[in-house]
Amino acid sequence: MELFLPRACGGCGAPGASLCTACQRVWRAPPKLARLNVALPVWTLAPYDGPHRNVLIAMKERGRADLADFVAAAVGASISYLAAQGEVEHDITLVPAPTRAVSQRRRGGDPVERVCRKTRLSTFPCLRISSSTPDSVGQSAQQRRLNMRVELLRQPQTPVLIIDDVVTTGATISASANVLRAAGVQVRGALTYCQA
Ligand SMILES: [Zn+2]
């Protein structure tokens, strides 16, 4: 199929590779602390913009699984960077941020979990957004935080880093950290590809 389907860069649309060298370079920036009003460090690679935004949309909405390798490489490099800074363990366990079961089914699997697994770090999906959580569209940050319900499905036995694609208010990450910490899990922080 490769021979017949022309590929376009998932970041900028240039013909040729899955991700052109210019977009790969943009994706390789080290993580920075996001300014969010949450009780744990949240690191992020970039604003939700340009090649970052395009790659996430291509993975999520257009099923471009070929991009997951590049995103996983960027996530893996970011975790090595954080480990070198003493922020997380080198063999930290990754917990994909929770999704609603219904959106996961529609997309044919969780793209964040797929990326986590491709980093080859141990990946422990254990969170789910409760079906009693109302849709966040049109809600203020405060309302989202109050309404967000996350369930712990099984308990990690090691320190964890929560991974998500885009952080907006931090409500999902905050609720995830709370439910993990309440169960005695050490949450080192969260790493997201983008901040909206
Ligand atoms: Zn590109």
TrEMBL record:
Family from the record: Belongs to the ComF/GntX family.
This protein's name: Phosphoribosyltransferase
One function term, GO molecular function aspect: glycosyltransferase activity
Keywords from the UniProt entry: Glycosyltransferase, Transferase
Upper lineage: Bacteria, Bacillati, Actinomycetota, Actinomycetes, Mycobacteriales
Keyword Transferase appears in the UniProt entry: yes
Matching InterPro entries: ComF/GntX_DNA_util-trans, PRTase-like, PRTase_dom
Keyword Glycosyltransferase annotated: yes
Organism: Corynebacterium crudilactis
Secretion signal, residue range per the UniProt entry: none
